[in-house]
TrEMBL record:
This is Lipopolysaccharide export system protein LptA. It comes from Orbus hercynius. Keywords: Periplasm, Signal, Transport. Pfam families: LptD_N. Transmembrane segments: none annotated.
Length: 182
């Protein structure tokens, strides 16, 4: 009986398939593991392309990126997630023209906050969103326009900062603010 010896290209194909299977299984584990999720809720990411850099522990998504995690939604052109295995150091940076952000409150739809900017940085440990460049946050008819807006999701606090020579612009509808507080 003659033994079949696979060619070099066949061996490389088997190695690549094994590597892909290994990556997929580790990613599926990461998506269900508490250390790779924001606030122990799974993250769903949809994009045209994805690149994994195992050496630097980053994942880059490009082209029509949509991220959904619990009541948080982000739409961007490019998203880079650093330190996938560390909830303490994980940062999600989104770039676009613009990047869209939406944080819904299921119990009170009037508390839904919508925002956009040229760049969005989500710091997982602090659970804060920073909007940079032509930043705007809206809640009902109330809105803030500034160069930089920092939104603390847990505390529901907003800090707006203008560039030198510009100012923060805010519109407040008093009776809507009273409704939002209820």
């Amino acid at each position: 009986m003659r033994r079949h010896v696979p060619s070099r290209s066949t061996k490389i194909k088997f190695m690549l398939v094994g590597l892909i299977i290994s990556l997929l299984s580790s990613l599926s584990h990461a998506q269900t593991s508490p250390s790779a999720t924001i606030n122990n809720k799974p993250i769903s990411i949809d994009a045209d392309n994805q690149q994994i850099d195992l050496k630097n522990n980053t994942i880059t998504f490009t082209g029509n990126v949509v991220i959904i995690q619990d009541n948080l939604e982000v739409k961007a052109h490019t998203v880079v997630i650093t330190d996938m295995n560390s909830k303490e150091n994980q940062i999600i940076t989104a770039n676009g023209s613009p990047v869209y952000f939406k944080q819904m409150n299921a119990q009170s739809p009037k508390q839904t906050i919508i925002g956009h900017a040229n760049q969005l940085i989500y710091q997982v440990k602090e659970n804060s969103v920073t909007l940079i460049g032509d930043a705007e946050l809206l809640q009902q008819d109330n809105h803030i326009v500034s160069n930089k807006i920092i939104y603390d999701v847990n505390q529901q606090k907003i800090l707006a900062q203008a560039n030198k020579g510009s100012r923060v612009k805010t519109t407040i509808i008093p009776n809507q603010v009273q409704e939002i507080k209820r």
